[in-house]
Design brief:
The protein folds into two domains: 1-195, Growth Hormone, Chain: A (Up-down Bundle); 209-409, MFS general substrate transporter like domains (Growth Hormone, Chain: A). It is 78% helix and 0% strand. The protein has helices spanning 13-33, 37-45, 50-82, 84-104, 108-121, 125-135, 141-166, 173-192, 210-218, 224-237, 239-252, 256-306, 311-322, 327-338, 344-373, 383-410.
Length: 415
């Protein structure tokens, strides 16, 4: 196919900041509503049963992740055909309207529809990553992917804090705030966001679904085993959001406030690593050595957390555990360099889908492990972290087996 668009414009600092802001606002929209979901679910159900509210909260979270899994490859392929700009702008518009619907929802079923729609619109994470791939030199891709992750992480720090403050005006106030943020970002995008797609690719339904996209991307020499590394890393890393509140309360007796503070510290540490430290480490070590060192590092940190007996030690360890976030952008950087320019959206869609599967599987596995380890005479609240450490070691072993194929696919000048 001939190149039908102009080369990506230079001086894209403002649009790159817009992409980072988009990911931050998306994460804030998720985080804003976390503090008020129990009260809102109780309100729409007309019951004070917190357990029933929690069950529906799990259903809403799962529906969100399932939609990301199903639609991320479709959205990525759409952006490879019709461009990054329209996909991102439509997503912002849909999210703004969706938050208004959820703010007005009077039934649990309308809330469920709202989370389904939000999960579909949030599948544009793959398009944001493809945008970054478009505007980044090969040696800068991993660093710029880290910026996107840093924006997302910062949003998770700010969102719950703002949601807790806004809750004073009722459980629906954070939804209105999220709608305003999305609408403001849409207006900014209309003004400053350029189109960066240089080589449009024909849209094919057989590739625009999780399995079809996985087959197409997995067929690239050296990439399929890296996708397995990505999966096991994502599953293991999801132990933090899946177990943290339960683990810290069981092991240290932390209050909800202490749990929230620790998560804020973790989010800030992640933002520092992915927005700054990554720019020091990956250019010096390279992606291969970064992955070779930091995947086992993650496994060691997870195992250490399992045996900590003092809460202050865990707090001190949080910034060190955040250094493990170097793995994700390094893996994305290698995968992005293997894929061609007209497959970046498709690739990021597949990676997002795999991460979505992890976000469905991991909470089920780790909460079951926690329940088993803390029932009866057993008192091992750290058991899920041992399981996560074992899964991270699997990712490390798969990486060592897969790197030769990845290096051959990159070629001597790219690996």
């Amino acid at each position: 196919m001939s190149d039908t668009s102009s080369p990506a414009p230079r001086g894209l600092d403002l649009p790159v900041l817009f992409i980072v802001a988009t990911m931050m606002i998306e994460a804030m929209g998720i985080g804003l509503i976390i503090p008020v979901m129990p009260a809102l679910l109780q309100e729409v159900q007309g019951t004070a049963d917190l357990g029933q509210a929690a069950i529906w909260g799990g259903v809403l979270s799962a529906s969100y992740a399932v939609m990301q899994f199903l639609l991320s490859p479709t959205v990525g392929n759409v952006s490879d055909r019709w461009g990054r700009r329209p996909v991102l702008l439509v997503s912002m518009a849909v999210l703004a309207v969706d938050y208004v619907i959820m703010a007005l929802a009077g039934t649990i079923w309308l809330l469920l529809v709202g989370r389904i729609v939000a999960g579909a619109a949030a599948a544009t994470m793959s398009t944001a990553q493809a945008f970054m791939a478009d505007v980044s030199a090969p040696e800068k891709k991993a660093q710029n992917f880290g910026l996107v992750s840093a924006g997302f992480g910062l949003g998770f720090v700010l969102g719950p804090a703002m949601g807790g403050l806004l809750a004073e005006w009722g459980p629906r106030a954070p939804f209105w705030a999220a709608a305003v943020l999305s609408a403001a970002n849409l207006a900014l995008g209309l003004l400053i966001l350029p189109e960066t797609l240089r080589r449009p690719r024909a849209f094919e339904w057989r590739r625009a679904n999780p399995l079809g996209g996985l087959r197409a991307i997995g067929a690239l020499e050296g990439l399929r085993p890296l996708l397995m590394v990505w999966f096991f890393y994502q599953v293991a890393n999801w132990v933090y959001p899946a177990i943290w509140p339960y683990f810290t309360q069981a092991a240290f007796g932390w209050s909800e406030r202490a749990v929230g503070l620790s998560l804020a510290v973790y989010g800030l540490s992640m933002a520092v690593v992915q927005g700054g430290v990554i720019r020091l480490v990956i250019p010096r070590l390279g992606e291969r050595r970064t992955l070779a060192l930091w995947i086992p590092y993650n496994a060691a940190i997870l195992a250490l957390i399992a045996f900590i007996t003092e809460g202050w030690v865990l707090l001190a360890l949080i910034p060190l555990s955040a250094l493990g976030a170097l793995v994700m952008p390094a893996l994305q950087g290698v995968a992005s360099r293997i894929a061609s320019d007209d497959q970046q959206g498709e690739l990021q869609g597949v990676l997002t889908s795999i991460a979505a599967v992890a976000s469905i599987v991991s909470p089920l596995a780790f909460t079951q492990a926690f329940g088993w380890a803390t029932s009866g005479p057993r008192d091992m609240p750290g058991a899920p972290f041992l399981l996560a450490s074992a899964l991270m070691l699997v990712a490390a072993a798969l990486f060592w087996r897969s790197w030769r194929a990845a290096a051959e696919a990159l070629g001597p000048t790219r690996s």
